[in-house]
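Tutorial handout. Part one gives the primary structure; part two gives the three-dimensional structure as tokens.
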Amino acid sequence: MPPIDASTDADRVPTHPDGPEPAGNGEDTLDLRLPDELVALFAAEATGTREAADPVPGYRKGTGPRIPPADDLLDGIQYWGPTTTPVGTFQLRPVRIEHDLPLISRWMNDPAVSAFWGLAGAPTRTEDHLRAQLDGDGRSVPCLGVLDGTPMSYWEVYRADLDQLARHYPARPHDTGLHLLVGAVADRGRGRGSALLRAVADLVLDHRPACARVVAEPDLRNTPSVAAFLGAGFRFGAEVDLPAKRAALMIRDRSLRHLM
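Part two.
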């Protein structure tokens, strides 16, 4: 936020260019008293304690959603808020390693997951994978998927046009990619994957106006994953050879989102 000019001249009443300055003891000024809430917000910005004046992440009381910084490559995932799905209220929450690592590492050590993610082993292996994204330039954001208040899935939302994937298909600017794993066995095979993929694709399209397509590249061998994307309104685009797998390029087009 640009600095506020607090000089007294900023509060002076403009005078006619052909007339004299009004005389008097301060009659040429307006009493421009800022609301207390706005003063608190400015103070929080200046001191780096914004959360004290903005206790609800992503929203300021009475003023709607926070606008992400212009250099945010994914338009403020942390501010997207919850969405209603056929299987419950769902929200993406960016990963906090100190809090979420044990859970995500446990999921990565599930044989059904590790077969495609390749991150089984000590928690440090998963931690390295997460930190590579969190310490990067923001082109990929790891998130927990929270359903009705319970973390139950892991997601990566990434700029596909800035990813190595863009070398393997005709990428368009702002194409946004998704990676997903459903953590608990009890949450698999019940249609939840398709419902949540559709919901997250809609969140991307709703909050990223420059994005015309949401894409994904599940392993061709992972037939349940491919089927989940098809059930979520994605179409099969092509088979692509990536460094670690042969993948199905799945695409959800903004122009077709209400038809598929």
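Part three, for discussion. The CA atoms of residues 182 and 188 lie 7 Å apart. The beta strands are 59-60, 64-65, 83-85, 88-94, 140-147, 150-159, 176-182, 213-216, 235-242, 245-253.
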